[in-house]
Amino acid sequence: MPMARETILIVEDEKEIQELVRYNLEKDGYRILEAATGEDALKLAVEQSPELIVLDLMLPGIDGLEVCRRLKRDQATESIHIVILSAKGEEPDIVTGLEMGADDYVTKPFSPRVLTARVRAVLRRKPADQDDEAATIRIHNLVIHPGRHEVLVDGEPVKLTATEFRVLHVLTRRPGWVFTRYQIATAVHGGDDVVTDRSVDVQIVGLRKRLGPAGRYIETIRGVGYRFKE
Description:
- The chain is an alpha/beta fold.
- It has two domains: 7-124, Rossmann fold (3-Layer(aba) Sandwich), CATH 3.40.50.2300; 130-228, Winged helix-like DNA-binding domain superfamily/Winged helix DNA-binding domain (Arc Repressor Mutant, subunit A, Orthogonal Bundle).
- 40% of the residues lie in helices and 21% in strands.
- It has eight helices and twelve strands.
């Protein structure tokens, strides 16, 4: 067995699914904790500080969405990664889960290999901190200088509006992450209620046009939002 790495809390009330997830994650070298209720999940999250939680939504007592909301509102647990694993696979369910703060959403029935790969991908993500705000970003054929509000594509400057620059900065700081329209609006405008999903879409359209061929790296995730291609 590989050397144990990060600790993962599995929150699942169906024993067979819990055992299947545990088996595959243990095989990948993770230390596993288990909870069958939302109340136990919240308690273990505080006491054990796992790096990631695989979270079912339909739980006895406190449901998974409420668990997610509480974890993300508590400073002691807000940095814990969350991968939702749920039979609720409609677009509104996925959007709600991501907007609550989950890093990824896997629907049941699921492939254990896909779930393990998603877990690995989420754990590879590094949280952005304040020092990263001014760091120059180099990705594909783009160079982004936050301090100078300057973007170069193939070495040539591209003129962006202040809002377009902030949207690009949000997406490129975490390539591969899926951001909902609400998350983009909050990051760019500080949660201004006047900002709508439609206004975010308009900014994305304008940004893609200004970036030219490099605009293809901004991918639309249907029913959810956008991400910058890794």
